[in-house]
Specification:
The protein has about 280 residues and is mainly alpha-helical. It has a domain at about 45-240: f41 fragment of flagellin, N-terminal domain, CATH 1.20.1330.10. It has 7 helices and 4 strands; from the N terminus they run αααββββαααα. It has a two-stranded antiparallel ribbon with strand order 1-2. The two termini are about 20 Å apart.
Length: about 280
């Protein structure tokens, strides 16, 4: 029907042109930002899922740093005990030398001087081994491995690892105290110090084993977090990231439809002129 008031073809073409223009704008926005979802209007459910996945991956990234810091802390404590081992081995050497009947009173006095200084250094290491300014080997330290420390190893509240080496570190302190108390006044005292030194070496070894096991566990935690983060990132990317091949094709299609609609709109607007030709 030819009509001056209602041009159905023009109205239909205008509607199609508006829809195509909106779709073209969406494609251009996606290609420009690199994201398939730029607002909740693009994919409300997808955005909600992606936001949850993003929160998880960010939490796991921080947890990875936590595990690395935890490993560094435990390695600091273990390194200090490694030096303790070297010191106790030297104290045992002195005890073994002093236990021999060839050692004179002057020899024992000289050995005792070094023996006592080494004992003081064991105390110094125990007191001054710190991580981030906090004592590690003291039973009352805020981060003390004896007092215990809880590592946050995941993005959820419940994902924690409570590490504590209280029994082992306390035993080291006790055994060191007994070794230091040896008077080293005679070959008999020196002989007794040999067993005391062996006891310290055993307790230090147990503490180092505990620290090493904790560091190894954190290393496995880190590897698992990396695996989970990689897969969750990929899942988030499938929701949020634009497929450039597909979207470029969509944009080209919409551009061609825009050109065709514009051309048809021009033709439909000319139909009203046909009414005048009928009136002549």
């Amino acid at each position: 029907m030819l009509s001056l008031h209602t041009n159905a073809a023009s109205l239909s073409t205008q509607g199609s042109l508006a829809k195509t223009n909106k779709a073209l704008s969406t494609s251009m926005t996606r290609l420009g930002t690199g994201f398939r979802v730029n607002s909740a209007m693009d994919d409300a459910a997808g955005l909600q899922i992606a936001t949850r996945l993003n929160a998880q991956t960010r939490g796991m990234a921080v947890a990875q740093r936590n595990t690395q810091n935890g490993i560094s802390m435990l390695q600091t404590a273990e390194g200090a005990m490694d030096e303790m081992t070297n010191i106790v081995l030297r104290m045992k050497d002195l005890a073994t030398e002093g236990a021999s009947g060839t050692a004179t009173a002057d020899d024992l006095l000289a050995m005792k001087a070094e023996f006592d200084d080494l004992g003081k250094e064991l105390d110094n290491i125990t007191t001054n081994t710190k991580f981030g300014g906090q004592a590690l080997l003291g039973a009352t330290g805020a981060l003390g491995v004896a007092a215990g420390v809880t590592f946050q190893i995941g993005s959820d509240k419940a994902e924690t690892y409570a590490f504590k080496a209280g029994t082992e570190v306390t035993q080291v302190s006790t055994d060191i105290g007994l070794l230091k108390a040896n008077t080293f006044a005679s070959s008999t005292d020196a002989n007794a110090a040999i067993d005391l030194a062996n006891t310290v070496l055993k307790s230090v070894g147990a503490a180092r084993s505990k620290l090493g096991a904790g560091a190894n566990r954190l290393d496995h935690v880190f590897n698992n977090l990396q695996n989970m983060k990689t897969n969750v990132d990929q899942a988030k990317g499938r929701i949020m990231d634009v497929d450039y091949a597909t979207e470029s094709s969509n944009m080209t299609t919409k551009q061609m439809l825009m050109q065709a609609s514009s051309s048809m709109l021009k033709q439909s607007n000319g139909m009203s002129g046909m009414v005048m030709s009928l009136l002549q």
